[in-house]
Write a structure and sequence with these properties.
Among the domains are: about 80 residues, no CATH class; about 220 residues, no CATH class. It contains twelve helices and 30 strands. Strand 11 and strand 12 form a beta hairpin.
Length: about 725
């Protein structure tokens, strides 16, 4: 039904694909064997000689720190498809128009390799991207691919530099799991181990191409990692170990947030297209509940004390993003255009064959109002306001479009029979990247350094997070590391800018199959109801690469923010710090939450799994933001801070390590700690005023983190009311 329904290449097609690929590699002056050996050599140079090893993880790359005051926050999307993918329909210019319309500063096109797409597709689409770069100088436009990771899920691969198209082409021919038949491999089999090694070699090869100057930079992110449950925790660690400067993280929330929301959905359809059950190639520790989204976010990210926290507890700089995965808009009057009425287009052949014959792409879309090739995506409505053609939300192209679309919708295979499941880039999901310069290098370095927060439904207009310690002039922001003396206080300051402009979208009614009638729009003004600080100690490398738990991580502090208007500030102090730890951040509109996956003692107001009824999971009524961590490192070699009294008993607690095996929903939660409270919430007596943003409200609190506090079981601190 959907664009992610992948079909494995037959043996005959695989043989043809490899022959064609070998010929093209020869034209580029390389061989498949030489590229693979270069990757394996780079992997060996990184000290990785065995896959699925129980050895501690390799050290992570040093991250660049930047003053929060020097950052500009750009909105982007690193996972977008066009007609150059076998399952999407929009032109490059169309997606760029939509992205700019919805406030994106940068975008990355990540087409599927799929058979022969790249023979012409990589290079021809690169020419189109180059033209759009010249036409849109204020827009940063990346070219990438959506990699079929061997024996695993998809991944975003971004490169930038003079040889970017050639490097992408070599990468997918040699290392793509689909093009090389490295899919559907039984878990824990020798074949899986070998394919995982090739995935690690692919990542190492990208790093080597950067070192050799073939490209300026490269990044890899795991896409929708729990959609099929085939990205094992050991595999993800191995990818990160292969080159932590290249493989930097994962999608915290998948795209396809409209799945289960569009007109032609059925029972069981869910946000993100997370509808599967464990299979033979799934990691054995995963259950069906883990292969669902929670508040629209992937289980690996949404679970407090879960996999993401286990990576951060190791000290890994492993970060999250979110994106649209835009293929087909949830409702749009455009349909896929018609192929020529001649062979092979009028024969019973795969979409890939037709695309190859058309130069590596699908036909241009058709506007159902006119049955002519679609014109510009951006138009003006009857009031003169910018709008998207056929997307009746926000414009007055209403009843005529709707009725015409219904009349033509189901005419043949060229129609988008599922109605789509994605939103436009920047419309629902946004990545906010803190850059030191508005450039390709700036965006990639921001992603690599973790200066990223992501939201759904424009939940926030702005977020500034800083960590400070006494006697230090420089604050540290998301992704950074603050080094402190034993006994120092660490203060976290979050400055939040609420959303003030409504977002218009299609009304959804669970009781009606016609609920996505685009003649009816809804204005949404989201409001963040609470914001959490989540954290735990940094305990060192996991002894078991299959670790899924960080049992000493919990919600440390929760602020109630409902009713706040204007920019406001939340402050929390960790007092007398003696143990290295990390903190990360999330917030919600508060309309759907409950006890977290590992229990209310760990996470009292966590995201919940969406229902199974068609159109039940309205994504606009369950909004969250997530922000990357800040690491607090205690310099145990230094003397206690002169600003703090010495505490003879205040030594870092011994690490208890991380759970060596996964814990499922039916398990009893591990004993939890809760920070010792030293002060309750209080409101600043005289809040400052921002003339442009309204009142700046301040809420502050304090928590003791000293000795072995992280290991103690204490009553949970009540959330701040902010009143």
């Amino acid at each position: 039904m959907h664009h992610h329904d992948d079909i494995r290449l037959s043996e005959a097609d695989l043989h043809i694909q490899q022959e064609v690929g070998d010929a093209e590699l020869t034209k580029m002056g390389v061989t498949r064997r030489a590229v693979l050996q270069t990757g394996l050599a780079a992997l060996a140079a990184a000290g990785i000689t065995e896959i699925a090893s129980s050895q501690p993880a390799t050290a992570t790359a040093t991250q660049q720190s930047s003053s929060p005051d020097a950052l500009t926050w750009l909105v982007g999307d690193h996972h977008v498809h066009t007609q150059w993918s076998y399952d999407a329909k929009y032109r490059i210019a169309d997606q760029l128009d939509a992205a700019q319309h919805h406030g994106c500063d940068w975008i990355a096109f990540t087409e599927h390799p799929r058979d022969f797409h790249a023979d012409a597709g990589v290079f021809t689409s690169h020419d189109l991207i180059a033209a759009e770069r010249r036409r849109r100088p204020d827009m940063l436009i990346f070219q990438g691919i959506e990699w079929y990771i061997p024996a695993a899920e998809h991944g975003t691969v971004l490169v930038h530099g003079k040889d970017e198209a050639e490097i992408l082409r070599q990468f997918e021919l040699v290392f793509d799991g689909y093009l090389n038949g490295w899919q559907d491999t039984p878990a824990n089999s020798p074949e899986q181990s070998e394919q995982t090694r090739k995935a690690a070699a692919a990542i190492a090869w990208l790093g080597q191409m950067k070192k050799d100057g073939r490209i300026d930079d490269a990044l890899v992110l795991a896409n929708h990692p729990m959609r099929k449950g085939i990205d094992g925790p050991d595999e993800i660690r191995q990818w990160n170990d292969a080159d932590p400067d290249i493989m930097i993280g994962m999608e915290g929330a998948p795209g396809a947030q409209g799945y289960g929301y569009g007109r032609n959905v059925g029972g069981g359809d869910r946000r993100g297209e997370y509808v599967n059950k464990p299979k033979a190639d799934s990691w054995p520790g995963y259950t069906t509940d883990m292969m669902r989204t929670y508040g629209g976010w992937d289980w690996l990210t949404a679970t407090v004390g879960g996999f993401w926290d286990s990576m951060l507890a190791e000290g890994r700089r492993f970060f999250i993003t979110a994106n649209s995965d835009a293929h087909l808009y949830v409702w749009h009057t455009w349909r896929l255009g018609d192929y020529p009425d001649r062979a092979p287009f009028n024969q019973d052949v795969k979409e890939d064959v037709k695309m190859t014959a058309l130069g590596g792409r699908r036909p241009d879309p058709i506007d159902t109002r006119t049955e002519q090739t679609a014109g510009p995506l951006l138009v003006r409505d009857s009031h003169g306001h910018p709008a998207i053609a056929g997307d009746i939300v926000g414009n007055d192209l209403a009843a005529r479009d709707w009725t015409q679309a219904l009349a033509t919708r189901d005419q043949g295979s060229t129609m988008d029979t599922q109605g789509g499941s994605d939103f436009w880039p920047g419309q629902f999901t946004r990545i906010h990247t803190g850059v030191t310069e508005r450039s390709y290098r700036g965006v990639m370095e921001a992603l690599r350094s973790g200066r990223v927060w992501a939201d759904h439904g424009h939940l926030l207009a702005g977020l500034d997070v800083r960590a400070t310690a006494p006697g230090q002039d420089d604050a540290v922001t998301l992704g950074g590391e603050l080094v402190v003396h034993p006994g120092d206080d660490v203060t976290i300051t979050m400055t939040v800018t609420p959303t003030t402009e409504p977002t218009r979208h299609i009304r959804m009614d669970p009781a009606s199959a016609e609920s996505t009638d685009p003649r009816v729009g809804v204005d949404t003004m989201p409001q963040v109801a609470f914001i959490d600080i989540i954290g735990g100690p940094i305990t060192g490398a996991a002894t078991d690469p299959q670790t899924l738990r960080a049992p000493r991580t919990t919600v440390l502090k929760s602020f109630d923010t409902r009713g706040r208007t204007g920019r406001f500030t939340l402050t929390h102090t960790f007092a007398h710090v003696t143990e290295s730890f990390y903190v990360r951040f999330r917030g919600s509109d508060g309309r759907q939450n409950g006890a977290g996956y590992h229990g209310a003692q760990v996470d009292p107001r966590g995201p919940v799994m969406g229902g199974e009824r068609a159109r039940e999971a309205d994504p606009w009524k369950d909004l969250w933001f997530y922000a990357n961590p800040i690491f607090i490192s205690v310099d145990t070699e230094s003397s206690p801070s002169p600003s703090q009294p010495a505490h003879g008993s205040a030594a870092p607690s011994p690490s208890t390590g991380v759970s060596p095996s996964p814990s499922h929903s039916g398990d009893a939660p591990s004993p939890r700690m809760s920070p010792k409270s030293t002060a309750s919430a209080s409101q600043a007596s005289s809040p400052a005023t921002d003339p442009t943003q309204g009142a700046r409200n301040t809420t502050s609190s304090s928590t003791t983190i000293g000795g072995d506090t992280f290991g103690d079981q204490q009553p949970r601190q009540l959330p701040d009311t902010g009143q």
